[in-house]
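Morning. Coffee machine broken again, so started the prediction first thing and wrote up yesterday's gels while waiting. Chain of 437 residues, entered below exactly as on the submission form.
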Amino acid sequence: MIRAPLLALLTALAAAPLSAAAAPPTAAERTMTATVDAEQPRTVALLERLVNQNSGTQNLSGVRATCELIRPEFEALGFKVRWVQQDAVARAGHLVATHAGRKGAKRILLIGHLDTVFEPDSPFQKFERVDETHAKGPGVSDDKGGDVVMIAALRAMQAAGTLKKANIEVILTGDEEEAGLPISASRADLVAAGRRADVALDFEGLAREDGRDMGSVARRSAGNWTLTVTARSGHSSGVFSQFAGDGAIYELARILAAYRQELPQPNLTYNVGLVAGGATAALAPDGAHAEATGKTNIIPAQAIARGDLRALSGTQIAATVARMQAIAATSLNGTKAVFEFEDKYPPMAPTAGNRALLARLNGVNATLGLAAMGELDPLKRGAGDISFVAADVDSLAGLGPVSEGDHTPGETVDIPSIFTQAKRAALLMSRLAAEKP
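Came back before lunch.
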């Protein structure tokens, strides 16, 4: 447990400007930074190979092929690598790599993913250099760019001799972009790894604000909700009457408007992503398509809306869901609404332990001559796999590269940020690995 005076110091360090008294790099740390620089062409070449192998979440063979491209990198560093098949949740599987170091030292969990949002039918398939400092391609940042940062950092540690004593477990999931269901099955190995670890580092992209690199000590949850309304139907000439009622679409609109007016809270969002209504309305099994029929002179009998809910704590999720259900329950005449919620990604709360990790990273920044990193606003970051372990272990996200256009055909990575992030990660992991839990 971190005591209040120490927490205040660590928080101040996390937000403090670069200190003139920063600890100079050790010989091992100088070797790590030199190794990252010397291996820049190798690192970019690995990124190109990974990006050119399609690994859309639904392309199970492509995700497995990406694993086979990256497996030798870990094996060459002395990791034992295994593949965790995920047939039961209709996903490819996860790469798990373990490195046994000094007994009694901190256990470090590294998290990334193999899959991308770009399936084989996407026109966006290949790695392409934009200029000397940028490249674009599917997953060039999210998260194949993060994976090569991780590997470059581990290679630098090996060159400096700090990897030998490090206790590290790596999990690269094969379905981060669209997790297999049930979540309890598809994330069982990750949750178990989090419970074994003393610290977790996530290699999704680094965020910037006003040109400043920011640390991610919190990520919001991600859950889906469905609102289904049924109503009496009839001739439109009777709409709003006591015997005919208001119809399903007006009731759906009332509920959605009430959500917008009554739910606002800090760090909470509740998007409406799909709406359908009419004489008939049906949601497709994939939850992403709907079909409706109707005429202007028929009071609609059915309406459906789907959306997501993102919050920063379990308490906030529970209170918001309860309020959404209560609003839906006060139905207009002749209508009935049913609200359902599916909790998927849990929140990563901004704990004292997470802030202490950011303070440690800022110590690395000082050694490297880099500016201190403040805390990123959690509204500016989506949900991620690290949230499944954050309740059990101190966690820090955003150790991957800087990018823009993620999840779009313009996804572009800032290449120099790959090397900066690899240096940060190598020094941070080496310092953590030398500590006791």
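The two ends are 12 Å apart (CA to CA). Going to sketch it on the whiteboard this afternoon.
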